[in-house]
Specification:
Blueprint lengths: L27 H16 L10 H78 L16 E3 L2 E3 L9 H8 L8 H37 L2 E2 L2 E5 L6 H36 L5 H14 L4 H22 L1
Helix pairs in contact: 2-3, 2-5, 2-7, 4-5, 5-6
């Protein structure tokens, strides 16, 4: 009789049967739940409600448009405030430059008077030398400068140029467009037309003075090259010298005349008057205040002559 086969303690599972899952470890279930909740919260996205009517569409469009308009308005407001600040800064700088030019012009008026009186005195001396055939032997007449101050310090020398740095810079970087039209026109008239013409006439005056000084140096000693000896000049030399002196006088006279026009325009800008009537009135005031007082110049020359004659008497 055949033997019965041994029965194994554990039988293999049938094909396709699933193994029973083992018991989860402690804490694993909790961790899985948390991941599931987290994944659910991330994926739980609500789509916006669709616009179903034309009314809703236009409300939505109007909201966007209003927001854009507000943003643009705010940007333009900031830019406008920035330009307003720039304009106020420019106006303050131009005003400060006008104040400085006013002081310079007043110093120049006095110096032009000194030069013109000096040249009239030279003209008189040359006439005496010609009338006496050189026997008068007059000493050279130097210029007597009126004591002047600029920015609190003594000033010596020829008439000065006007300051234009603020105007030139503003014109170069187009900031002049920030000014109102009437203000910009007033400053343009002051700087671009009248100021530039004065600068040209001042240069011509300096050129005439340089020619006169070059001629004087021909009759001066090496140790004193700016002090000519009139007795060394012939009659022809004296006549040529007189012509040069009077050319210098005329150039100074014309430059001073233009400076009065500049001064009137400068005053109009300082006073905030931009109409032509006010500018003309202020120019007339400058004409009167800084007129060529030849009578006063003659008195000054006479006083210099008296002092020179007195010194000559003492030296005998």
């Amino acid at each position: 009789m055949p033997e019965t086969p041994d029965i194994p303690e554990e039988l293999p599972l049938a094909d396709g049967a699933e193994a029973k899952p083992s018991a989860p470890e402690e804490g694993a279930e909790t961790h899985a739940n948390e991941n599931e909740k987290e994944e659910t919260s991330v994926l739980d996205v609500h789509m916006p409600h669709a616009t179903h009517t034309w009314k809703d569409f236009f409300i939505h469009l109007g909201t966007i448009t209003a927001g854009l308009l507000i943003a643009i308005s705010l940007e333009q407001s900031v830019e406008m405030l920035h330009h307003l600040h720039q304009r106020h800064e420019l106006e303050a700088s131009l005003r400060a430059e006008c104040e400085a030019n006013k002081e310079r012009a007043e110093v120049n008026f006095a110096r032009y008077d000194d030069e013109m009186a000096w040249m009239l005195g030279l003209h008189e001396d040359i006439a005496k030398m010609l009338a006496t055939g050189g026997k008068a032997n007059l000493p050279y007449r130097g210029i007597h400068e009126t004591p002047l101050f600029l920015d609190g310090s003594p000033y010596h020398g020829r008439p000065m140029a006007m300051m234009t740095a603020v105007w030139d810079t503003a014109a170069a970087d187009s900031r002049l467009a920030l000014l109102p039209d009437e203000v910009a026109h007033g400053y343009s008239l002051l700087y671009h037309i009248r100021g530039e013409r004065f600068a040209l006439l001042r240069t011509l005056d300096g050129d005439a003075m340089n020619r006169q000084e070059a001629f004087e140096a021909l009759f001066a000693d090496i140790g004193t090259p700016t002090t000519p000896v009139l007795a060394r000049m012939s009659a022809a030399d004296l006549k040529q010298y007189d012509a040069l002196v009077m050319q210098s006088f005329t150039a100074a006279h014309i430059a001073k005349e233009q400076l009065r026009l500049v001064y009137g325009s400068n005053e109009a800008m300082l006073q905030g008057l931009y109409d032509s009537a006010s500018a003309y009135r202020l120019w007339e005031e400058a004409q009167t205040r800084f007129a060529d007082d030849y009578g006063k110049m003659a008195v000054k020359v006479a006083a210099e002559d008296a002092a020179r004659d007195k010194a000559a008497e003492k030296s005998k």
